[in-house]
Write a structure and sequence with these properties.
mainly alpha, 161 residues, 9 helices, 2 domains
Amino acid sequence: MDHDLQYSEARNKAIAHIGIAVSSSGKIRDFLSEKGYDSEVIEEVIDQLIEDKYVDDRRYARKILRSRSGAKAEGRIKLQARLEEAGISGDIIREVLSDDEYADENTILDVISDRYPPQSFSTDPKEVKKELAKAIRYLESRGYPASLALASFRKILDDVE
């Protein structure tokens, strides 16, 4: 197939794949690669889609970050992995995650306040210890260090007293 025809076909398939949503260059690159297009054609199509605003890695990264906020918040390391998996470049990942809004110290408080209101813990000291250990394991699964989780619970308790 000649280059111009392949380019036109690949661009049309990419636009149809994107639809009305925003997508990342990495996702489109993977999609077109799976369809068997040459890497040169893929890069030309992606460059044109970026210019035409069909592909916007920053906007796509922010969309992912918005979806992982509040009770669904995750630590920066987990967010970084999620953005890398979405095909976002390292430069853009560093840029969007540099915002203090995504600092672990800030986002962990959202998770704790949504998932663990003060009245959710037992009054029995042995039970509180078990519940706290379970809560810290949960926060670790969200990408937060155990030390930050414990310090955040302490901060919240200090603020309540």
